[in-house]
Amino acid sequence: MNFYDYVRNIQNFPKAGINFKDISPLLADKHALANCLSELVVLVGSQKIDKVAAIESRGFYFGTLLAHKLEAGFVPIRKPGKLPFKTIKEPYELEYGIDVLEIHEDAIEEGDRILLHDDVLATGGTARAACNLIERLGGKIVQCNFILELEFLYGIKKLQDHSVCSFLKF
């Protein structure tokens, strides 16, 4: 299956100068959706995963599915004010501004083997912030797992201390 056919470019979104990679067509096609999940599982290989942590909101599309397939728990990493229990916070820069991520302070136990998932690796700021949150709670990041990577933004440099996998490269 050619997954590139299911990613459309949206010019000037969310602001002028950004060429957004939209995976909505992939999500809408049942075969592409199932095959994408299979590809993400293949990236993990035989590694033991205790929990899948996924970044709001597009990371949730496959994060819970991956957790189910890998027989692991699921941990949401969200923007401020979205989680109901006590949280820890981590600020980060992204290609079009500054934001903050939060995670429940009891979401990860010391030594948990974590798969971090998001749809896109761009500048790496969001993923780096998520890694920092996971590690502050004592989690061990087994892999940072993405559907697609925007190689020209060099986000992988911010994750050099982790295994990073994606199956679509732009």
UniProtKB/TrEMBL annotation:
Q: Which domain of life is it from?
A: Bacteria
Q: Which InterPro entries does the entry mention?
A: Ade_phspho_trans, PRTase-like, PRTase_dom, UPRTase/APRTase
Q: What is its EC number?
A: 2.4.2.7
CDD domains in the record: PRTases_typeI
Q: Which GO terms describe its molecular function?
A: adenine phosphoribosyltransferase activity
Reaction(s) catalysed by this chain, per the record, are: AMP + diphosphate = 5-phospho-alpha-D-ribose 1-diphosphate + adenine
Q: How does it assemble?
A: Homodimer.
Described purpose of this protein according to its UniProt entry: Catalyzes a salvage reaction resulting in the formation of AMP, that is energically less costly than de novo synthesis.
**Record's PANTHER family?**
ADENINE PHOSPHORIBOSYLTRANSFERASE (PTHR32315)
The similarity comment for this entry is: Belongs to the purine/pyrimidine phosphoribosyltransferase family.
Name assigned to this protein: Adenine phosphoribosyltransferase
What are the top taxonomic ranks of the organism?
Answer: Bacteria, Pseudomonadati, Bacteroidota, Flavobacteriia, Flavobacteriales
Q: Which gene encodes it?
A: apt
